[in-house]
Amino acid sequence: QVQLVESGGGLVQAGGSLRLSCASSGRTSSIYAMGWFRQAPGKGREFVAAVGTSWSDYGTSYADSVKGRFTISRDNGKNTMYLQMNSLKPEDTAVYYCVADKTMVEIRIAPDYWGQGTQVTVSS
User: Fold this and answer.
1) From CA 124, how far away is CA 121, in angstroms rounded?
2) What angle do CA 108, 110, 114 make, to 5 degrees?
3) Cβ distance 82 to 19 under 8 Å?
4) Residues 6+ apart with CB under 8 A from 51
5) I need a labelling partner for 41 at 20 to 30 A (CA). Which of 11, 73, 116, 122 fits?
6) Rounded CA gap, 77 and 100, in Å?
């Protein structure tokens, strides 16, 4: 019903920056929150950040591990969402997944929609 496509991943040296993008399509009227999870090698998926996509839910939320380094944002039409990643560390290496849900509460726990993921590799 909702399709999410990530882009912008790649290889970057420690201390560098990357900007991830996520384009949504389909029944996007059901989406009021978008965000990012990541999964490092050998680990489970963890919440990274989320942003509200409606006029009444415009706040942002960040995991402690990325707060102050990553910035999440969305375009005016809500169907494109971005993650600006600065001061990248090797421990940020992971597959990053675009996610979407109906609420900012649910998206942190169990997002309804997932993209295929984009690889971010931070070299030492």
Assistant:
1) 10
2) 100
3) yes
4) 33, 34, 35, 58, 59, 60, 61, 72, 73, 74, 81
5) 73
6) 15
The three-point CA angle 81-87-93 to 5° equals 75
Tokens 């912008």 -> residue: 8
Q: Contact 47/123 with Cβ under 8 angstroms? A: no
- The per-residue pLDDT for range 18-59, each reduced to its tens digit, is 999 999 999 888 888 999 999 999 999 999 999 987 766 678
**H helix intervals, 37-77:** none
- In the three-class reduction of DSSP (H, G, I as helix; E, B as strand; rest coil), residue 30 is classed as helix
CB 118 within 8 A of CB 18: no
For the beta carbon of residue 14, count every other beta carbon within 10 angstroms. 14
- Identify residue 75 by its one-letter amino acid code: D
